Amino acid sequence: MKFKAMTAIAALVISAPFMASADADDDELVVNGEITMVTKTAAPAHLADDVDEIISGWHFRSDETQIMQADDFDNPGMIFVEQAMDDWNTVMGTKDKSCASCHGDVEESMAGVRTVYPKWNDAKETVYTMEMQINDCLTDGMGAEPWKKSGAKMARMEALISVQSRGMPMNVAIDGPAEATWEAGKELYYTRTGQLDLSCASCHEENYGNRIRSDHLSQGQTNGFPVYRLKNAKLTTAHGRFKGCVRDTRAETYKPGSDEFIALELYVASRGNGLSVEAPSVRN
Amino acid sequence: MKLTTLTLVATFAAGAAFAGGMVAPADVAFTEDGAVEASLSGAAGDAANGAKIMTTKSLGNCIACHEVTALSEAPFHGEVGPMLDGVADRWNEAELRGILSDAKRTYDGTVMPAYYKVDGFTRPGKAYTGKAPDGPLDPLLSAQQIEDVVAFLMTLKDE
After folding, report:
1. Per the CB < 8 Å rule, is B124 touching A4?
2. Which pLDDT value is given to residue A139?
3. Chain B interface, best mutation among A197, A206, A241, A264, by max B CB count within 10 A
4. E strands, chain A, where?
5. What is this structure's pTM?
6. What is the DSSP string of A241-267?
7. CA of B43, closest CA in chain A: separation in Å?
């Protein structure tokens, strides 16, 4: 280390920002008065050297934003879930099928699905995001056109499927055939990009709890995705958020749906293993 | 190559009367401890302009990460970096110039960006567009802008 000539005062000031996690509040999230969310819990074993506790991004938002997520009537993301319910029952493509033709009642067939995505797909021999699975259903299963990656239709269908797992703990597999992809995602998480030379860890591991301009930095968890963002009044997918964060390092971003973001999604999801699925969460 | 960089930097610092003593980002002479002795522009800095650069989002945006009491009228001071009050008691001018030009030479692995550096980045983009750059990068601040910020920081004395 090149810390030379540091006075005791300077050293004190510099250590202060890293006592960060105390800044997450102690509020409790119970949705509709019945689903109690795990928004803070012990970090999964693979993070043992990095953080002790994992904390939902919900804790870093203002009380006004937080409360919108506690009741489906106040959660603006639920409108998109309703729209996706129509899509679920709509017959599409050359095979005259709807999602419901194969999967029936979404509440039953999709419960728990969100907690394990992204996951290894045996037949395709690669890690699949929920979006890839949805597009396979559209093209192969229904003979329809695939939806735009991270587009509005995709985001709301992901929200409809995810909401069936609300309150269940995230639990993506990081070993077995998915391990190489997980490792690639981890590498990306710690790679500094752009002219600002910052990695995901620079902001979400080293500085969560700190303010960066007007924003209160969270751990950048994905258990709330797709999220409803007040800023642009629509749902944002994990890849959409990753793209914005990479852009903010003054970097050339990766594309939503790219191999890089698929790997990153698996890795970031695994950093939230144990937190409740919150989608559609509300953030600014 | 070096010539184009020089011209770019020179045009970037438009407003400076002459580019005579200008040092290009690739030619900055750092001491072993990360300090830079000579003015990057060859001219003195303007502290008032430095204060403006520090609070302007599209320029230094320093208060995104640092709190500075003297700049408290500008909104949204961050807490990612240390509070800068009294910083001139802790560092001399050459050290501050070094921290601004490339903070990693003073603080190993810091998250503070290098404001006078144009290469060695992974996937650098065209400013905040998320797209690939069209040509060589400009430094985040021009030589004269760095000098202006250094001049302002030198006014931050407690003692």
Report:
1. no
2. 98
3. A197
4. 30-31, 35-36, 40-42, 53-55, 119-121, 126-128, 211-212, 215-216, 227-229, 234-236, 281-283
5. 0.90
6. HHHHHHHTTTBPPPPTT-HHHHHHHHH
7. 26
> Would you call A10 and B106 a contact, using CB atoms and an 8 Å cutoff?
no
Check A252 against B82: CB less than 8 A apart.
no
**B34–chain A Cβ distance below 8 A for any pair:** yes
pLDDT at A39: 98
Tell me the two tokens of residue A143: 């003979």
Assess B157–A contact: CB distance below 8 Å, yes or no: no
Find, in chain B, the residue whose alpha carbon is nearest to that of A8: B90
Q: How far apart are CA A131 and CA A260, in angstroms?
A: 15
- ω before A146 within 30° of 0 (cis)? no
The predicted complex's ipTM stands at 0.89
Give the residue-averaged pLDDT of B85-97: 98
> Are the CB atoms for B28 and B36 separated by under 8 Å?
yes
Question: In sequence order, what are the residues at sequence separation of 6 or more whose Cβ sits closer than 8 angstroms to the Cβ of residue A38?
Answer: A169, A274, A275, A276
Contacts of A254 (CB under 8 A, 6+ apart): A242, A243, A246, A260, A261, A264
Could you give the C-alpha distances from A169 to A116, A172, B12, B129, B158, in angstroms and in order?
9, 10, 52, 36, 51
The pLDDT value given to residue B19? 54
Alpha-carbon B15 to chain mean position: 17
State how beta strands A227-229 and A234-236 pair. antiparallel
CA distance A62 to chain B (A): 15
- Looking at residue A79, its amino acid is I
Q: Are A223 and A29 in contact (CB under 8 A)?
A: no
Locate tokens 């069936």: which residue? A164
